[in-house]
Structure formats: structure tokens, C-alpha cells
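To the wet lab folks,

You asked to see what we're planning to order before we commit. Fair enough. Below is the target structure as C-alpha cells, and below that is the sequence we designed to fit it. If anything looks off to you, flag it before the synthesis order goes out.
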């Protein structure tokens, strides 16, 4: 099994090496992970939820693991100068598209702004610069004094009281081996004992900032539970309302998540 995972920390918590339990792990940019899956070069890929919701017929989600959070991870932040009220345009790199779409929802819902999110890798157009930009960067590092930022994950949690689902482990719907790949993922995730994995990773990186440690200890969600599933549903509704997806359709799982199985009800 070949698996494409985002090269954004701390995805390495789940798959620290390039060969885990017989899984060949490739670390790539988010957009590259989806492209590798679409082309058949990998069997499973971590794909941004908004991309799956745009074409639910093409993908099945493996229920064994998820990347979700209530704040901080993966350092998706909206940077701006001056006040939030002055934001009228936001620049977003294509690989950060989901974060940009969520930022637009937050600006409109929480701050009453009509920010026009512009996708592209060039921060200035025709001599004019956007008022803000989305990036994946720890805001506790060295910053320009006049820069301000919003934590997109935390803002989403304050808006919805639910985790933001960032990425799902996905197979092509036409693949006949989804259950097999799911079993392999289950073996990996079960064997990791995620809480212990996080603690061990923290111990190995004593120079981490308190913000990072807090994120890893409390904010991350690796399993589909009722709150994560509810967050997925609410995100789909917001994306539809703001015209990011054509309709509201429940994404398909290769098998039901544990919280939806009859034995758990």
C-alpha cells in the first residue's frame, strides 16, 4: 500500500517514517497528495475535506483515522495589517485553499465582512496587494511588528463549537481494495496508541513552543467521533451556503465509522 500524507507537521505523528507496517509513506504538499491519488500513483491519500465534498462520487473515506482540531493545527492563520475591519481581499495559495474558504466563512459570519478570497501564488496583482493572506505558519515565531493574525482553527471552533476537519484518508471510489487498505490503516493507528505517541513526540522535541505543545496535547483529533462527524456535516453546510460546493451530500465511507455502527448505539 502506498500512502500520500501532507508534509505539514504534525502529520508525522501518525506516520513517522517512510515505511510503517508495510505502508510506503510519501510526504507531499496537500495538492500533490490528491493528484497522486487521482492518477493512481498511490492507493490512499490524505485529502482536504473541501475537495472530497466537491466530488463525493469519486472518493471513499477510510474511517480509521482523520486529521481534525479545535485550534492551532496545522497553523492555518490569517495574516493582516491594521484591523480586521480593513480586510477586503485575501490571498490564498492553492495548497491552502480549504483554509482560505474557512477564513472567508469566518470573516463573514464572525466579523460581518465581505472579503473576496483570491486564490493564487502571487501576493500582489497590478501593483495592489491584498489586505490579508492565509498561510500555514506558527505565529509565535519572528514576525513583523505590525502583522496581526487569526487562528483559523480556533475561530472555527468559536463559531461552531465543533472541531474543524482538515483532512481525510481517501481512496478512489472505483478502487476495489478500500476495505483492505482500511484494515491496514486500522493496524497502524491502533498500534500507535496515539496519546502515547504524542507524549513521546513531545519528549523528543523539548524546544517546542508552549503553543505547539498545547496543540498536540489537547487540540488534535485523530479519530472519527460524534463531534468530528458533526463538524464535517456543518462544514459541508457552510461550504454549500457560500457557494463552494454545488450541493450538500454526505461523503461516502468505505465502512461506517465506529460512532455510527449499530453496536455502539
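Sequence we intend to order:
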Amino acid at each position: 500500500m502506498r500512502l500520500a500524507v501532507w508534509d505539514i507537521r504534525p502529520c508525522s505523528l501518525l506516520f513517522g517514517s517512510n515505511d510503517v507496517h508495510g505502508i510506503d509513506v510519501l510526504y507531499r504538499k496537500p495538492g500533490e497528495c490528491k493528484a497522486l491519488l487521482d492518477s493512481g500513483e498511490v492507493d490512499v491519500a490524505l485529502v482536504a475535506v473541501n475537495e472530497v465534498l466537491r466530488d463525493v462520487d469519486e472518493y471513499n473515506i477510510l474511517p480509521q483515522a482523520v486529521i481534525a482540531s479545535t485550534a492551532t493545527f496545522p497553523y492555518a492563520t490569517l495574516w493582516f495589517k491594521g484591523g480586521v475591519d480593513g480586510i477586503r481581499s485575501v490571498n490564498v495559495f492553492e495548497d491552502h485553499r480549504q483554509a482560505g474558504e474557512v477564513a472567508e466563512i469566518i470573516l463573514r459570519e464572525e466579523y460581518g465582512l465581505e472579503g473576496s478570497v483570491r486564490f493564487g501564488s502571487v501576493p500582489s496583482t497590478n501593483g495592489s496587494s491584498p489586505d490579508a493572506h492565509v498561510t500555514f505558519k506558527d505565529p509565535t515565531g519572528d514576525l513583523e511588528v505590525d502583522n496581526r493574525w487569526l487562528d483559523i482553527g480556533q475561530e472555527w471552533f468559536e463559531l461552531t463549537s465543533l472541531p474543524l476537519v482538515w483532512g481525510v484518508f481517501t481512496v478512489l471510489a472505483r478502487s476495489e481494495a478500500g476495505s483492505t487498505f482500511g484494515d491496514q490503516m486500522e493496524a497502524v493507528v491502533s498500534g500507535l496508541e496515539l496519546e502515547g505517541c504524542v507524549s513521546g513526540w513531545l519528549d523528543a522535541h523539548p524546544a517546542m513552543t508552549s503553543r505547539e505543545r498545547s496543540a498536540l496535547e489537547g487540540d488534535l483529533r485523530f479519530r472519527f467521533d460524534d463531534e468530528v462527524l458533526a463538524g464535517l456535516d456543518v462544514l459541508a453546510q457552510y461550504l454549500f451556503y457560500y457557494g463552494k460546493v454545488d450541493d450538500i451530500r454526505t461523503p461516502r465511507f468505505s465502512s461506517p465509522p465506529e460512532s455510527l455502527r449499530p453496536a455502539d448505539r
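Structural context that might help your review: Helices lie at 30-38, 49-54, 97-111, 152-160, 178-192, 194-204, 210-219, 226-241. The longest helix spans residues 226-241.

Thanks,
Computational group
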